[in-house]
Amino acid sequence: MSTVVAQSHHVFGLQSQVANNIFFFDEQIIIFPAGNQCVRYNMDQKWQKFIPGSEKSQGMLALSISPNRRYLAVSEMVQEKPVITIYELSSIPVRKRKILNNFDFPVQKFTCMAFSPDSKYLLTQTSPPESNLVYWLWEKQKVMAIVRIDSQNNGVYQVSFGPQDNTQVCVTGNGMFKLLRFTEGTLKQTNFQRGEPQNYLAHTWVSDDRVVVGTDTGKLFLFESGDQRWETSIMLKEHASEMRNLEMIQESESLIEFPTMTSPIPSYEQVMMASSHSQLTLPQVFAVAAYSKGFACSAGPGRVLLFEKMEDKDFYHESKEIRIPVDPQSNNPSQCDKQDIVCMCFSPSEETLIATTSKNQLYSITMSLMEISKGEPAHFEYLMYPLHSASITGLATCIRKPFIATCSLDRSIRIWNYESNALELYKEYQEEAYAIGLHPSGHFIVVGFADKLRLMNLLIDDIRPFKEYSVRGCRECAFSNGGHLFAAVNGNVIHIFTTTSLENISNLKGHTGKIRSIAWNADDSKLVSCGTDGAVYEWNLSSGKRETECVLKSCSYNCVTISPDSKIIFAVGSDCTLKEIADSSVLREMSAFDAVYTAVVISHAGRMMFVGTSLGTIRAMKYPLPLQKEFNEYQAHAGPITKMLLTFDDQHLLTVAQDGCLYTWKVYDKEGRGIKREREVGFAEEVLVTKIDLEEKAQVMLELKTRVEELKMENEYQLRLKDMNYSEKMKDLTDKFIQEMESLKTKNQILKTEKEKQDIFHRECMDDLLEKQTRELQDLECCNNQKLLLEYEKYQELQLKSQRMQEEYEKQLRDNDETKSQALEELTEFYEAKLQEKTTLLEEAQEDVRQQLREFEETKKQIEEDEDREIQDIKTKYEKKLRDEKESNLRLKGETGIMRKKFSGLQKEIEERANDIEILKGEQLKLQGVIKSLEKDILGFKREIQERDETIQDKEKRIYDLKKKNQELEKFKFVLDYKIKELKKQIEPRENDIKVMKEQIQEMETELERFHKQNTQLELNITELWQKLRATNQEMRKEIQKERALEALVKQFKTDLHNCVAYIQEPQQLKDKIRGLFEKYVQRADMVEIAGLNTDLQQEYTRQREHLERNLATLKKKVVKESELHRSDYVRVMQENVSLIKEINELRRELKLTRSQVYDLEAALKLMKKIRPLEAPETAPRKVSLSIVPTRRLNEQEETGRIIEMQRLEIRRLRDQIQEQEQVPGFHPIAGINLPSLESKVDSEMQAK
């Protein structure tokens, strides 16, 4: 287990969805569920004590307390299975008495429970489709009876026992009201439903056989022994006091910001119009609670009615109405009381009524104070403070004040005090608040709403915004530790703002998914972020760039934090691990053991770490992180934990979750002491107040002072007037009293005279009465003497009768004695015979016993002898063992000396490895710079090649144009007749040119092959370099991980050694501790390493050999691939050469044909010259005209030849440049790009000519 301990200190929240969620333990202490624990709260002393839920619990479903207040039953779901745990509340601390988890019947969950009046039996109801009612003898975990309540899958809402009878049971639900009785091991229904079935929501027993039941249509029924005796309907109508409350709300403009005309809040006119139509609604009776005078029931949203019993009848009448008050801090005050009351409870003395609502609020009212206010409806008060009613999305704390800031999906912002456990400020808004940040001074907050990001002041009694930013849907925001900056997240961008000028100084972009968490380091120079894209980035705020990054796309991160020394980043996500990240790599991954971590936080001292899970539990562990499963797990929340924080002094842990609860935990070490604060600084007491508020309050105070003076003057004047009036009245009264006294004196004298007369009259009457009495006494004595004589005679007669009766009874007794003596003699004889038989049997049994005793003594002697021999053998054996242990102890002392030497050697090796790592890091940085420069060169060369490809394409287009011109030249074919002679002269040099061009083509092919070989060689060199670099990187990471593990081991060894030093004065304990250290840190693997150090060298040699073999295999594969590529290129070049040779042969054939045509033409021309010698003067001008055209065409041919020559020079220049670039190391030629062949150019030239 971990040495870090977290203890629940206080909770701000309530789970209203738990059935029967509030009840009294005594007059001062109440019990209610919050998160995944039950809370005992003292209303006078304001302390809380906790009853944690079961391990791996998924949340509470129902509660029940026994009538004697000794036991608490909790229905839970533990790993998808229902469990009922019964706690003993009278023990300190509260302990589990029984756990009911083995069921012989199908059950999904238990929805409601109830204890019997004597607390021995438990009644439980299961959920549909089973809907079984189970009657338990819970102390013995025995099912006494089970019955299916409903076969139509309707819900059962409440079960209960009769107030005095263990066998009588009541069940209410949708369409059912059943009274059952436990008889002969079964539950039998005793009532029959009459009339239409109702949806009975709640019930309570008002006497031994009477039940009051409430429905969803606002009806109340009284059943006596299952028969309906009384019925009433509750109509929900708007009260006149609500109108006055609305007027008061409209007048208090200083406290409430009024919405615009599009707000959903109804205006005063709308309420008046609604009331004029007298809209009546049917309230739902969700809760009914009985007390001595009658019962209380919920009567619609925010309303409770008290019914009292009529004196002359057995029915009830409505006596009082209680309402939930309007909250002035709410965004919609008219809707604050529109929350259903789901549970109610009276205190044992019936002095206090407590109610819980559907919005997780706790209200109370004192019954004695409620009776004073007659006529108007009474109002509830908050039992503690307003609580969150939805999932808490934001959590923040500060340094200078004990404040906690929270925001929730219930559109509220609340400021709590974790020292006084109170609510400091509270305000609701129209938009949902997603994230909150609290300035270290405790005076400002930044809140991310759905529409904007707002910066607000925390005033003495209000929260007021003073700056708004157009950042929509900000899910994360946080102030820096110094308070001069704050960061806000918008999607995948982090905006950095300064609190001095309130400007956006930087935007950090890089995430591709939504950012889930951000964290500042200790000196605010860096910011760490994580997101759903699986990326963890560390940002440098001075440059606005990423310093380190770690991307794992398979993991969606939930939370991130950074160690106090800013070296290690801790991240948790959807892959159920806790990651330690440093230098862009994951150093360690600690498994979460079948749980998803949702939040992580590390202490400011760097000694402890806490993580929150999706199950709502908290795990406390020591840092550096343990290698095994060493952590303390605590049941906290009933939903996934959303945020976790530690206060600046590391004294309190704060957690919030989707269940709407805020927990504060006290952090202790293993011995139970609180972790000391790093520096003792008192909390600040100053508050913010605006100048306008101060002026208004000063003005109000002046007005009140003047009003007080005026009232004093008025009171003095009124007192004077009253004194004068009273003095006059006193005078009148004294005069009246004097007159009355005189009249009374006269009356007194008259009465005295009358009294004397009466006394005389009474004396005379007394004398007469005495004489009468004496006469009557004498007469009575005579009569009584006669009666006594008669009675004496009767007495003597009765005495004679009694003597006769006595003699008869004595005779009967003698007869009975004789018969009795005979029966006794017969019985004695019979039993004496039996006694003799039994004595003989007893003697035989005694002899058997003596024989067995003798055998037992003999066996005892033999066993004692054997035991003595065995003891001697064991003694000798253990003496030998003791000698061996002493020898091994001496040997171990020598080995410890060797280990110390080895430890010092390892420390030196660690220092050397650290130096090597620093050198390797420097080399790595240099290589990275070279690689970056080479990549830039490669990009430049690629751009140049692209440009040159474009120029070549332009030249090819030009050649194509020239071909078109060549086709036009064919039109002038008849000119060739006159230039045959010149062409003959030109044919021979053209052939020579063709030969030269062929030689050039061959040279170019050889150069091209050489270029390909150089390219493949360069690629192989680059791949080798990359593989070497990857291998060095892997080795470096392994060395870093080894170094981290060794550092953690050394730290742990130092702490354990320091703990051993504490026992330096106690040798035996010191010896045990050192032996424990040896067993913990010295393993067999270490001894093997001492025995054979050469194995490391052998492993290094084999590792290098395997590395070289892998490189050789990769090179062979690459050579095979390159040879295949080269072969395909060679085949392609050969095919091109074959096609070119075919073209050359075709050109030769055409040349021969043209030559033969030329000879034929020459022969024809000679004949023509002979035939027409005289036609020369006529054709002369024609020749002149024709000769002009060839000269012009010759000029064009010279121009094309010049162009071709220029292109050749350009091609040569490009080849020279390519050769120069290929000599540069790291140059990669573009695969698939070949230079244009010169034969195609020659072909085009031939066609042009």
TrEMBL record:
PROSITE patterns: WD_REPEATS_2, WD_REPEATS_REGION. Associates with components of the nexin-dynein regulatory complex (N-DRC), a key regulator of ciliary/flagellar motility, and might act as an inner dynein arm (IDA) hub or linkage. The gene is CFAP57. Residues 795-895, 952-1021, 1098-1164 form a coiled coil. WD repeats lie at residues 385-426, 508-549. Residues 393-667 form the EML-like second beta-propeller domain. It comes from Rhinolophus ferrumequinum. This is Cilia- and flagella-associated protein 57. PANTHER family: CILIA- AND FLAGELLA-ASSOCIATED PROTEIN 57. It is found in: Cytoplasm, Cytoskeleton, Cilium axoneme. The keyword Zinc does not apply. One of its GO terms (biological process) is single fertilization. May form homodimers. Associates with components of the nexin-dynein regulatory complex (N-DRC) and the CFAP184:CFAP263 complex. Keywords: Cell projection, Cilium, Coiled coil, Cytoplasm, Cytoskeleton, Flagellum, Repeat, WD repeat.
